[in-house]
Fold:
Amino acid sequence: VTTSNPTPEEGRNSGANVSIATRSGTNEIHGTLFHFFRNTALNSQEFYANAQNTPKAVINLNQYGFEVGGPIVKNRTFFFGSWQGQQVNFADPIDKAFGESVDLYTPAALAGNFRYFVVDPRNPFTLNGRPVTQNTSALVDQTTGQLAPGVRNCAATGETNCIATFNVFASDPGRIGLDSAVRSVLGSYPSVNSWAAGDGLNTANYVWTSPFQIRGPHHLIRIDHTLNDKHTLFGRWLGAKQSTLGGDPLNGRPQVLPGFPPRGEVFRPADNVAIGARSVLSPRLVNEFTVGFSRFQFLFTQGEANPLFPNTPRFTFNNSDVDYTANPRTFRAVTTYQIVENLSYVTGSHVFRMGGNIRFYQHNDQRGDVGGTSLVPSISLSRTVRPPTGFAFPAVAGTATPGISANDLNRLQGMVNDLLGIPASLTQVFMGNLRDDTFLSFRSGDAVTLWAQGQRTKQYNFFFQDEWKLRRNITFNYGVRWELNGPPTEAGNRVYVPDRIPDGSAGPVTFVPAGRWHQNWNATALAPRLGLTWAPTHKTVFRTGYGIAFDPISTFQVTSIAAAVPGQTFRCVTTFGGATTPGCTPIPDRRLGAGLPNEFPAAPSVKPSTFLTPPAQTQNNAPPARVFDQGLQLPTVHMWNFSVQRELPGGYIVQAGYVGRRGTRLYRSWDMNQIDAAPMLPSFLALQHNVNLGGGCRPDGTLANGSPCANARAVPLVQQGIVTAAFVNSAQSQTDLRQNAAGNMAGRIEQTTLNARLRRNQQFAQILYLDNGADSSFHSFQFTFRKRFDRAGLLLNGAYTLGKSIDNLSVDPVAATVGGGFTTTNARTPADSRNYQNERARSDFDQRHVFNVTGIYEFPFGKGKRFGGDLPRVLDLVVGNWSLNAISTYQSGEPFTVRSGVLTHNFSAQSRAALRSGQSLPVAQLQEAPNVVGPVLFRDASAFDFPAPGEVGIGRNLFQGPRFYNLDMGLSKGFAITERVKAVFRVEVFNALNHANFRNPRDASVGSPAITSAVFGQTCCVTLSTASSATTNQNGESWRVMQLALRVSF
Structure:
């Protein structure tokens, strides 16, 4: 692994360069058999699972296999092969696998009985010292569902502070009872078994551990052949077929209920093939030629894991979860064809090396959504869209009158729609075929329509380098890379780009066919590399180097852009009791069980091409767009380093050095169409002034009777007729005024009228524009030490880094997903896309201190050791060949941003929080808080406030997340069975101290960095297995896990 100062041959990007060598066979047969074993009984409990008294996660692992190599033809042809099988059985508590508890209707609710607490504001009821104001799980025994002590059923109408019942079926004017389509779903589910969540009276939980398995072999086959003493050949095939079966909890698609199909499975076949030749053309000239092929496939089956697909139900409920998803698969295959040619020439004090690497990437996608918009027709039973009518619902409690709480009435209305199968709307997004200018139906028979594209990129990289030995102890390396990374294309010529800058400054934008996603070939990408090594003594070495690296575009980023071309989708909506989208076929209003259609019977009458030039529309109706800067350049990273290495007495080698990097022209994605609050800020401040006058003055400066308030200010937006008094006086506007949410009001105005012109281009909603506006820098002091194995049997390795990384964007600008892009709540979305300088701060992944130590200690007992060297063989088998190893890791916490939770500056991103007047910047540190499971970083949000209208708040990444510490240990025992056959048995303990590492609030499954959140500052509810779940693949354990291993070598 090369992490700094790569040669021109290496370093085709700015990250670490990994060279992998596979073993070759020899003239003797050698091999190894191995088996790794884990079992739940050997493990401890995860921190939050223990705190919440949930079942222990099941981990039962068996990994087994062999590797063997030897001759096919002695001295000529050799083979090496390996095979690994795995049977891994997991079971996670369903709330962890699903991301939330599974809410189901209770048996009483399925019988039509909605139970609710009758609130009496004049005589509040308290339970365990807390007032009861609505249905809550505290009203029942959380294990049996029986009413808690002190809680009673109402004996007669008019009683209060008791449990009353509303019979949905008896109150239904149609007297139909439980809808047959609903019964087929909810009636098949198991009864609830936990009342710890839900409303306690009508909905509760089904708690269990959801199982899933990982299966699939990995294999390697390599053949080496010697033609003669100058020419050799090799061929290698690496393959794997790893599958996640019975559920996909990593993506929140587990088996939700026992006996039901999972919400998805994952299949990941992979192949890597290489054939190469090495020719010694002369004593000074060597040529290496390799051709390769690799393919990685990912199939996320989602709803197709259900045998009913595509006939799975299309509806979901207001108050209950369902076991199914109707989404089709997501499939991608990334294929790379590669040609590598290297030539080495040695003359005098020079070693010249030159060559090229040509790569052809093919990235094929199939999915049931377009840019994150699902193509699956869906039926909504929303009580908000369609409140049930014809029912004599109980009266809502007032400030002085008893009744049902407003929240419980909402649940009751939702239950009415759920159980009676009353639809609110049918929504279907049709996919557009721009080449045929037609919209496609969702399905034809059992085949469903999938968005499919194939992105292509070609990379031609060449290098020249010279390793020049200026003197015996001085070596100078120099060279250059030339990288020609062409613009990406699409296999079916389905490339559409804007005909002008998309911000509308040059007139209305039309998406037009093109040959490439951007036009810049970056043909002058030359990357010099320099390196110097000086060894003044045989124990001291100085090294320094400088180089440039380029980062080519990822095909995942291209796929995200491709999915957002206008005209690829058209949404048809029928709102029952309301309107149908023009151009779409109306749907009859029927209950689910009475034959309500699952989808629109025909594609819309409009043409996809009409949307390539979208008209000006309000923000909520306009399409989003994602586009490349047509002059996109290659991100460029400058790298430099200096180090000194010294061998010390006792077998120690230490090295200290400095490593620096500067990234320029890095990829950046920003909302070119950001709706700013600045143009309407005078109106917003006038509205706030009027409300602050008190005396019942409304935002528009009038009283409820319409008369003007004394000292009221005129509101320009109202005076100019851009918005109405009703708009600014609405409840939502008053909430915006209380929260300083000028950005949110600006967005709402753009959703109401085109006259305010708060968007640069009103043809589009968000315009995600990918250009080269980001930059970064990294500086670090790095210290390493190594202690070679000595007579005492001790080996040590250690590394410490003191570093600081600064940037203005820390993540893939399109999130590496087809549905990528910025959201208002994403902690990494810039607070102001028009001012990236304001985003300059510590990187999201910055870790100030990183310290790693590894060690192996061989106990000095047994044959060949200090003690017991003459022990009898039987006794030596017991006490000899023991060793202990350990890996210890410490890392500082990553920084995070505290968000305000509101849109004070613009409509694209939540602003960062502000500090209250006179408040210094608080320190984020792990601490306990009342009634919170696990530690928090802030006890509350009292130090923070909303920024002023039009402001973005404090700086980015000012707070430090929790640090990370882990210790893995292993104890091994070697056995010499015969002279040629040896065995090693190991006991490995991951997270040996069972130390809980807590998450940064921005990544917590429950916690949040937003001050408006009820879980602000919390780290709940899954501990970390690595230092950062956001930037690192899992390679550790959140709790202590023990593994047994046996290896037999011959």
